[in-house]
């Protein structure tokens, strides 16, 4: 444990509906046209920590796919670009600073995503009451990122001035009688934060 000191008319109507649907389908697209992701594989990033501009490298699989970003979601541009990347994300994991000096290649397409949403913090204790000293396990493995990203850090406020962080579970012993409010805060891979109240621990 470590202690620290969120007719014609019908044609027009059909055309309008089609345009609205197209706009909704590619709301994040930053080009004249985009295509939906075709599968899940890998994304390259201009930033060192899987940040900056996200791209997909078309020569993968002999140009067999228009776009297969790391989590299989997003809108992919159709303009071929030369990009210098410094990191990549594969199978959910960020390979930070993979190319410290930059890796410049052609035939990338840009991956566009809608505005990021915060993660959902979720957790529970194995028990909520007992006599001192009371040992309690806390689990936060039900936390998730609704936009397809990953949870990168967990911070537990255990209610008695003790904090623990880094893992989706923790164990703490309450040595003195009292009422302790426990909170969990989580971060996702885009830096978004969310907190939730885990529960009250009653120690007699």
Structure characteristics:
204 residues; mainly beta; 1 helix; disordered N terminus
Please describe what this structure looks like:
The chain has 204 residues and is mainly beta. The protein is built from 1 helix and 16 strands. Strands 1, 2, 3, 4, 5, 6, 7 and 8 form an 8-stranded antiparallel sheet that branches. The protein starts with 7 loop residues before the first helix and ends with a strand. The N terminus is likely disordered.
Distance linking N and C termini = 22 Å
What level of helicity do the residues show?
Answer: under 10%
Strand content: 35-45%
- Total DSSP E strands: 16
Q: What number is the mean pLDDT?
A: 85
Any low-confidence stretches, pLDDT <50, length ≥5?
A: 2-26
The tally of helices reads 1
Query: Using only CA atoms, what is the Rg?
Result: 23 Å
Q: Note the overall shape.
A: elongated
Brief account:
With 204 residues, the protein is mainly beta. The protein has one helix at residues 8-25; strands spanning 34-36, 42-45, 54-57, 75-77, 81-85, 87-90, 93-95, 103-112, 124-125, 129-130, 134-139, 151-157, 163-165, 169-174, 178-188, 193-203.
């Amino acid at each position: 444990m470590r202690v620290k000191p969120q007719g014609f008319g019908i044609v027009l109507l059909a055309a309008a509906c089609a345009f609205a649907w197209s706009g909704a389908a590619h709301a994040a697209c930053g080009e004249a046209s985009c295509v939906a992701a075709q599968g899940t594989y890998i994304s390259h990033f201009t930033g060192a920590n899987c940040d900056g501009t996200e791209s997909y490298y078309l020569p993968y699989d002999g140009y067999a796919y228009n776009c297969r970003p790391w989590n299989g979601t997003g809108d992919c541009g159709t303009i071929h670009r030369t990009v210098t990347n410094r990191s990549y994300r594969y199978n959910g994991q960020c390979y930070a600073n993979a190319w410290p000096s930059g890796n410049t290649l052609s035939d990338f397409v840009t991956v566009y995503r809608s505005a990021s949403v915060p993660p959902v913090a979720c957790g529970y204790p194995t028990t909520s009451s007992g006599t001192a000293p009371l040992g309690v396990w806390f689990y936060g493995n039900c936390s998730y990122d609704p936009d397809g990203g990953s949870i990168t850090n967990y911070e537990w406020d255990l209610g008695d001035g003790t904090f623990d962080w880094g893992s989706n579970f923790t164990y703490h012993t309450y040595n003195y009688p009292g009422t302790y409010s426990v909170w969990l805060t989580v971060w996702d891979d885009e830096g978004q934060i969310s907190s939730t109240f885990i529960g009250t621990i009653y120690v007699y």
